[in-house]
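Section 3.1 - Work completed
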Amino acid sequence: MSPGQIAALIAAGAFVLLVLLLAVPLIKLGRTLDEATVALRKAHENADPLFTGANTTLNHVNTQLERVDGITANARAVSGNVSALTSLFTATLGGPLVKAAALSYGVSKAVRARRRAAEEPGKHSRRGRKSRGGRR
């Protein structure tokens, strides 16, 4: 055997050893990828009922939102009607009611003043006026 053949045998042995050393991590990586594939498959199988439930929930929420939109539209119409009715009431009865309230206030104040004047003889019903004698 020549030195070149011995060197070729050593190189071939080193190459076999290198292939064996690299085969172990590759086998482990293959197992890891297999486990990841199984985990993804299980997650996909369990996700279908979850998405179905979420879709059902969203359909119910959309139905309720449509009802709320209807209620909001009705409330808007009612508030508009109340506003119009209030404006009409203010325009037709507001002015006369304010005048009637002012009149009743003035009459009640005059009646009270008159009663006080009747209960206290000798005193004038107007305040702040000086008596003729110079004294009060």
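Second construct:
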Amino acid sequence: MIQRFETGPRMSEMTVHNGVAYLAGQIPEDTSQDITGQTRQVLEAIDALLAQAGSDKTKILRAEIFLADIGEFAGMNKAWEEWVPQGHTPARATVQARLADAAWKVEIVVTAAV
């Protein structure tokens, strides 16, 4: 069985199958904020989605982080390190990418156990 959450005409924000939650790329709502603020927004959205699936950030298996400007790596990491629980850090990749909206500084995709 596949569960779909916040399903729209183009995509679902999350799907769950065989005890694994797959999140769509999460992006900031308030693009006026700096990289640290945008990252915090994205991490809050991830927390909310994982809660819907009965999971949380301690169960994240993998994170893929896309930055519009790799020069903002330190600012993103500031928010990430405040958020991620020590001892539960997931496998992670961070790359620079042209994001779909030029105002987005960060997009994060996670896969987590449920």
